[in-house]
Automatic annotation (TrEMBL):
Encoding gene, per UniProt annotation: enosf1
GO biological process assignments: amino acid catabolic process; carbohydrate catabolic process
UniProtKB keywords: Lyase, Magnesium, Metal-binding
Entry similarity comment: Belongs to the mandelate racemase/muconate lactonizing enzyme family. ENOSF1 subfamily.
Cofactor list: Mg(2+)
Mandelate racemase/muconate lactonizing enzyme C-terminal domain segment(s): 101-197
Protein name per the record: Mitochondrial enolase superfamily member 1
Length: 340
């Protein structure tokens, strides 16, 4: 098994799937949404859920426990605040590559009317096109709203620095995944070069495990940690990363594109605010507006905030009709595809 991993690739994704299901069952047994299960756990119990192997040079059990104990102050107030206001979200749905200017404008107009203030733009295919699109979005959302850009691992290191420097005038808060997700020192070089321009580096959705996050943090290679609920080894490993990020004073802004990732990761970021970071400064959770209709407990967004789930479990259960239709190879969707 270690030969197929260790702690990365398909083995780690499978581990996450199995352990996410176990956490879902645990929360259901306690009749609590997962975030509430975590929030109600004793700090020592939480620490016992974390595998500290390979990360004690960055975070010890004692340090983790100390962080959780200190965060007890104001915890009840923060929980009540989340129930009332929700956790701030940003939208990725307005500015995918390939959208026409008219489509960008319409989606931005609609999003602004719905209360969105934080927008992410995909970049990396053509610099002139990126400059035009970023200018258009910045003009539409105004100077006070937040803009982020995402290259999805497009560039080499020097190319990333040049490209983002050309986009810095549009005041992006961060450049996401500027280069290979495995290149820790490359990210560090990009971070150092872009710091004078006020642009941070965000990454993590393809980060294999807690050890890589440890090195990213130790090398000052990222200014925003983007955990993923299904990439790391479930809740357990995400707890380790949340605590390391807090120790290194780097905000966590989870990745949540894809099928059900919004439903899952909302629980982790609620726990982070209530029990770890106690801060909302430069913190937000990604939101993508598709495929939620396949879940029994879809996310609830109100005024561009994730409202805390109330149903027991990890919000990961899919509707039986959706599972049946998409099951391979018997499902109707696959039959239609295979018959073409």
């Amino acid at each position: 098994m270690r030969w197929l991993g260790p702690e990365k690739g398909v083995i780690h994704l499978a581990t996450a799937a199995v352990l996410n299901a176990v956490w879902d069952l645990w929360a259901r047994a306690e009749r609590k949404p997962l975030w509430k299960l975590l929030v109600d756990m004793d700090p020592k119990q939480l620490v016992a859920c974390i595998d500290f192997r390979y990360i004690t040079d960055a975070l010890t059990e004692e340090e983790a426990l100390d962080i959780l104990v200190k965060a007890r102050e104001g915890k009840q107030h923060r929980e009540e605040q989340m129930m009332k206001e929700g956790y701030p979200a940003y939208t990725t749905s307005c500015a995918w590559l390939g959208y026409s200017d008219q489509q960008l404008q319409q989606l931005c107009t609609d999003a602004l009317k719905e209360g969105w203030t934080k927008f992410k733009v995909k970049v990396g295919a053509d610099l002139d096109d990126d400059r035009r699109r970023c200018r258009l979005i910045r003009q539409m959302i105004g100077p006070s709203n937040t803009l982020m850009i995402d290259a999805n691992q497009r560039w080499d290191v020097d190319e990333a620095i040049r490209w983002v420097s050309s986009l810095a005038e549009f005041k992006p808060l961060w450049i996401e995944e500027p280069t290979s997700p495995d290149d820790i020192l490359g990210h560090a070089a990009i971070s150092k070069a872009l710091a004078p321009l006020g642009v941070g580096v965000a990454t993590g959705e393809q980060c294999h495990n807690r050890v890589m996050f440890k090195q990213f943090l130790q090398a000052s290679a990222l200014q925003f940690v983007q955990i993923d609920s299904c990439r790391l080894g479930s809740v357990n490993e995400n707890l380790a990363v949340l605590l390391m990020a807090h120790k290194f004073q780097v905000p966590v802004c989870p990745h949540a594109g894809g099928v059900g990732l919004c439903e899952l990761v909302q629980h982790l970021i609620l726990f982070d605010y209530i029990c770890v970071s106690a801060s909302l400064h430069n913190r937000m959770c990604e939101y993508v507006d598709h495929l939620h209709e396949h879940f029994t407990s879809p996310v609830v967004i109100r005024d561009a905030h994730y409202m805390p789930p109330k149903d027991p479990g990890y919000s990961s259960e899919m509707l039986e009709s959706s599972v049946t239709r998409h099951q391979y190879p018997e499902g109707d969707v696959w039959k239609q595809h295979l018959h073409k």
